[in-house]
Design brief:
Helices cover about 65% and strands about 5% of the residues. The protein is mostly helical. A hairpin with a 4-residue loop joins strand 2 and strand 3. Helix 2 crosses helix 3 and helix 6 packs antiparallel against helix 8. InterPro entries: DUF7342.
């Protein structure tokens, strides 16, 4: 039995990028990159990150702006682009609602509320921002807790929104007159 070892890569990141560009379209890469951009960024930089040509990137960004997924910010000498935060949040809420039923969301909400309250009790502050103000720069455990608390709060808000969206969807279905589609008056 002859076993050929896999080709070695000098740079694992280069191999990952090569696989990414081989397995996705330029438009898909632009979408993936821009969904992680929360600061206004030039199209040229997005093109570099997405490993795509600027004309393709500009066309894709125009389409994404039209869809409301990306925001264009006028920078005087051209536009800068970033993800549309409200649409990003909306998409996260829809993913949660699709992945979990109401009972699971309620259970997660309870767990997240408990986690947040434990951090408040442990540190005697009301928010991760307040915690950052009292932590020493070398308090590794405290900074780890700060990050965990921020994540828990973000997930708490998203879970609440998913539950509210579930309730609104259910309410709209229940109040819809039979035989007619649409939003109830």
């Amino acid at each position: 039995m002859d076993v050929t070892p896999p080709a070695e890569y000098d740079d694992v990141n280069a191999a990952a990028v090569a696989a990414w560009t081989d397995e996705t379209t330029a438009r898909d890469r632009v979408r993936a990159v821009v969904q992680r951009i929360d600061e206004p960024t030039p199209a040229a930089e997005i093109a570099t990150r997405a490993r795509a040509s600027e004309p393709v990137v500009r066309g894709t960004l125009t389409d994404l702006v039209d869809l409301g997924i990306v925001e264009a910010v006028d920078a005087g000498q051209g536009s800068l682009y970033k993800r549309h935060d409200q649409m990003y949040i909306y998409r996260q809420v829809l993913k949660l609602q699709a992945a979990y039923d109401e009972r699971e969301l309620l259970s997660e909400l309870k767990t997240l509320k408990t986690t947040v309250q434990e951090f408040r009790d442990t540190y005697g502050v009301e928010s991760p921002t307040e915690l950052a103000g009292v932590l020493d720069p070398d308090d590794t455990d405290g900074w780890d807790d700060h990050t965990t608390w921020q994540t828990a709060e973000k997930n708490l808000y998203l879970t609440k929104a998913a539950l509210s969206f579930h309730d609104a969807t259910y309410s709209a279905r229940e109040s819809r007159p039979s035989g007619r589609a649409g939003i109830a008056p």
